[in-house]
Amino acid sequence: MTENKNNVCYVMEDGEMDVQIKQTKAQPEQSNNNRTNWSNGQCVVAMPGYSVLNPSFDMSLCRAKLENDGFQIPEEDMEAPLKTALEVPSVRRYMVFNSALFHFLMAPVLYLVVWCAVFSTLHIFITVSDYWVLCLSVSLVSIFLTTAIVFVLHYSNKEIDMNLDVRLIQVNERLVKHKLLVSVADWVQSCAGNMQLYFVYWDMSRCLKALTETLEERNFVGNDTQNKLKKKMSHLVLVTEETAVDLRLEEAAKVATNYSLVPDEALPAQTRAYQLLMTYSAAYVKLLVSQRLSGPTHHRLRPRRNHCTTAPLCLCQYIKKQILR
């Protein structure tokens, strides 16, 4: 376990950092044969939610599908952390109201509200002889405002989500030992919501090595890299609940504590690289499976050292582009 100056603890069990560079110990022969067929970025399991209003997932079915593909994952590395991250009532409500389907359904409602507001305002202060001119003007203004709001909501979904992606950091810290990353992604398809829990195969060793080398090279620049991290990650806070015991009342109460996710510059480059990869792992997988990663689509135009054959950018390149640029 490493701890930065903000007391953020990143759980790295004995030998886990070596696991990121070297291959893990051999699994049963059948499991190994199945897992060698996967490459970085391939979706192993896509588990749809029960319903739009109940965005929960069948963990037992997830386990069965993963085991069928050769991934033997202990319960404490998958079900337990996933339930802690996603099955909180407040998180479920957020998943409903922030879903792509909800935004899709709210667009016409928002248009009507904006249209009525603009029409009532202009009708009071402006006298127009031709009624259709007023209606046309109001419609154009309403379309523009509604489009702008929908665009802002769509763009915000491409950023790291504090309520989902950050909560999945600790889950991915456990799953990456089994060469898997998990995230929740959704979009509208055929006027229906498509929210699913995605398990994507990912061998982190090459990304960890490449990002470590990048951070080591930039150490000679001084504080420039750390200033970029603080500027672009200062809003990322991990909220944890700690049990505090009141000796006078002899009762235990849960106290929420905020931890910054900005890596401590005093840590080794490899540890900082690992923290960055884990912090943005869920956000990257979300963009990967929904095909919203921006970059050259043609194979020959893709950047060198791309460790993902199914996307224009791999995880370490995504971090370099979004955070370190």
TrEMBL record:
InterPro entries: DUF4481 (IPR028054)
TM region positions: 100-125, 131-153
Keyword annotations: Membrane, Transmembrane, Transmembrane helix
Top-level division of the source organism's lineage: Eukaryota
Keyword ATP-binding in record: no
PANTHER family in UniProt: TRANSMEMBRANE PROTEIN 268, TRANSMEMBRANE PROTEIN C9ORF91
Protein name: Transmembrane protein 268
Organism of origin: Eleginops maclovinus
